[in-house]
Specification:
about 0% strand, DsrC/TusE, DsrC-like_N
Length: about 110
């Protein structure tokens, strides 16, 4: 079963987080015009870890920058996240990660 066959919200987010798989993430990313690299996966995995292991937490971009700075070494700016997920990292990466749509605006 592919992404097209799964139940989604009006904005394309998976209704059931259990429907997600890495293959589904690749399909969602392709539909968004992205080819996932290791850095994309680092952020996707971080968001999934935060959601499933930390009381459904959905970090904002400031927290994403801090976490990726620790994972990648060096300073990660918001621009770096937008280079990976140009349609707003907190939303686009979350969508590809199979998480519910966050209602926050992103940023700080």
């Amino acid at each position: 079963m592919g992404y097209a066959d799964l139940e989604k919200t009006g904005n394309g987010y998976l209704v059931d987080t259990a429907d997600w798989s890495p293959a589904i993430a690749d399909e969602i990313a392709a539909a968004e015009g992205l080819a996932l690299t290791e850095k994309h996966w680092d952020l996707i995995n971080y968001l999934r870890e935060e959601f499933f292991d930390n009381n459904e937490n959905q970090p904002n971009e400031r927290h994403m920058c801090k976490a990726m700075s620790e994972r990648w070494g060096g300073s990660v700016a918001t621009k770096d996240l937008y280079d990976l997920f140009p349609m707003q990292p907190s939303k686009q990466a979350g969508k590809i990660a199979g998480l519910p749509e966050t209602k926050r605006k992103g940023g700080y």
